[in-house]
Specification:
By secondary structure, this protein is an alpha/beta fold. It has a single domain (about 25-245), classed as Metallo-beta-lactamase, Chain A, CATH 3.60.15.10. The chain is built from nine helices and twelve strands. It has helices at about 5-20, 75-85, 105, 125-130, 135-145, 220-230, 245-270, 275-280, 295-315; strands at about 30, 35-40, 55-60, 65-70, 95-100, 120, 160, 165-170, 175-180, 190-195, 200-205, 235-240. It has a seven-stranded mixed beta sheet, covered by helices on one side. It has a five-stranded mixed beta sheet with strand order 8-9-10-11-12, covered by helices on one side. Helix 6 (about 220-230) links the parallel strand 11 and strand 12. It is globular, with a radius of gyration of 21 Å. Bound molecules: zinc ion. The site of zinc ion (ZN) has 7 residues, from helix 3 and strand 12.
Length: about 325
């Protein structure tokens, strides 16, 4: 019997080493933005850069528990996030709000399955999860983000969907979560840490990079940005890029980009100019230097062109 010990020990060491290997070697250091709010921030690149760590996750730490906002883009990044949270507090993780059900914000859910936290998303996330896109995206990421997204990666659906808004107090901290409707995605949540005047915006704001528009509703998105610009907060943590203190400043790139693409494409649709021609004729100079421009811009413009075409057909 005793002769088996060394073997068992070796096996254990092996398993530990293997699971350690499976964590991506990214820099992930929580940044404190207020008494209770923290975030970790991914690189400014596109979805497959930096082991998939290209988005943000924020969390609220109180004496009675922790609330997490987004879990990052792979289960392994979710595990790194959980460890980062644990470096600050051992309090139970009570709730996980997912700003929107896009891959880069929720594939990390899997790493939190042992915490007993409740996962909550916007009512609009149902539309995304019921369609084909969620599964197609997972298949695509199993290739483009292999081995970090693989055959054992699953989409963990919310335990509960939120409509309108909800407020609660945890460890003396008042938290308000608002469903801003379909803007960047089919359903977007934002979270206010009211005591601290901090807002987690999710992908309503992309700081320092060109946003990914996907299935967004650009007109509604611009409305939400205009409200956010007026928000009386001391800090905003965006879905991508660094946090900032000035709401007007941090929304400006996303807002000016969305307005510009809409304006350029609206002109083209009104004048019956084909997309390719309109795209070539547009001067993209103000945005071309930003990260993700090459990967996202043409597709973004095309998406907006099609949606404006639909709008104009409805008007006739
Ligand atoms: Zn995102």
């Amino acid at each position: 019997m005793s002769r088996l010990w060394p073997l068992a020990l070796l096996l254990l060491i092996d398993i530990a080493a293997a699971s350690e290997d499976r964590l991506p070697p990214v820099e992930m250091k929580p940044v404190q933005v207020s008494s209770h709010a923290y975030y970790v921030s991914g690189a400014t690149g596109v979805a497959t850069d930096n082991y998939g760590f290209v988005s943000n996750s924020a969390f609220v730490v109180t004496t009675e528990g922790i609330v997490v906002f987004d879990t990052l883009g792979t289960p392994a990044l979710g595990a790194r996030l959980l460890a980062a949270i644990r470096s600050i507090s051992d309090a139970p993780i009570r709730r996980i709000y997912i700003s929107h059900y896009h891959a880069d914000h929720m594939y990390g859910n899997q790493a939190f399955s042992g915490t007993g936290a409740e996962i909550i998303a916007s009512d609009g996330a149902k539309t995304y999860l019921e369609g084909d896109v969620a599964q197609l995206r997972l298949q695509e990421r199993r290739v483009s983000l292999s081995p970090w997204v693989n055959e054992s990666t699953r989409i963990i659906e919310p335990d509960r969907y939120l409509q309108n808004e909800e407020r609660f107090t945890l460890g003396g901290v008042d938290i308000r979560v608002v469903d801003v409707g379909s803007a960047h995605s089919e359903g977007d949540l934002v979270l206010f840490v009211e005591n601290d005047g901090v807002l987690f915006s999710g992908d309503i704001i992309f700081a320092e990079r060109i946003p990914f528009l996907g299935t967004s509703s650009s007109a509604e998105w611009l409305d939400v940005l205009e409200q956010m610009e007026q928000a009386e907060v001391s800090a905003i943590v965006p879905g991508h890029g660094p946090a900032a203190g000035n709401p007007g400043e941090i929304v400006s790139l996303t807002k000016s980009y969305l307005s510009f693409v809409r304006e350029s494409m609206r002109q083209a649709v009104e004048d019956w100019v084909p997309f390719d021609e309109a795209y070539e004729a547009t001067d993209w100079g103000d945005f071309i230097e930003y990260p993700a421009f090459l990967e996202a811009n043409r597709r973004n413009a095309y998406g907006i062109y099609l949606s404006l075409e639909q709008e104009s057909l409805k008007d006739q």
